[in-house]
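User: I'll paste a sequence; please echo it back and then give the predicted structure.

Assistant: Echoing your sequence first, then the prediction.
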Amino acid sequence: MNFNARHLNDTHREALIAHFRGLSRRDAYLRFGTFLAPESIAAYVRGIDFERSTVLGVYGEALELLGVAHLCPEGSVVELGISVLAKARRRGIGALLMRRSLSHARVIGADRLFMHCLAENGDLMRLAHAAHAEISFHHDEADGFILVPPLTPFSAAVEFAEEQLGVVDYAFKAQRVAWRHALGIDA
């Protein structure tokens, strides 16, 4: 199955809450660096400022968010957090989110992508290594910096095309869900 990522906005808050609550206790701990109660996850999502930060999402066939990337710019650096549901791992979703995050960071003029995680977060460490991150360790935590490729004349066009693929992918999935529902077919 092919996956595409699209930008999320304020109307996707419930889907984001469902995604983060769908992470196992351990995965949520690895994503946030601490154990969060369901109310804290909801507060985190309600606190996302979609005017300031960018959230990318990858949807599954049942319109559930399988993967999420949250990008928060601070000057020329963009901090990145990624999560992928356990059932959707090893299918390229994390790599897709990393690639789209780098592409978006390039278009907004950032020169580095920053990732902070627990050193035991093997999945994120693999993504960081694959993206040629410079990683430093501090006790049980790791910081990774990835140099953002320079802007090219085609960077914005590529980002726009990728976004449109994500929107169309979501529309097709939503149409299939609607038809299955209308016909009484279980997903």
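Helices lie at 13-22, 25-32, 38-46, 93-107, 122-130, 155-183. The chain has one domain: 5-183.
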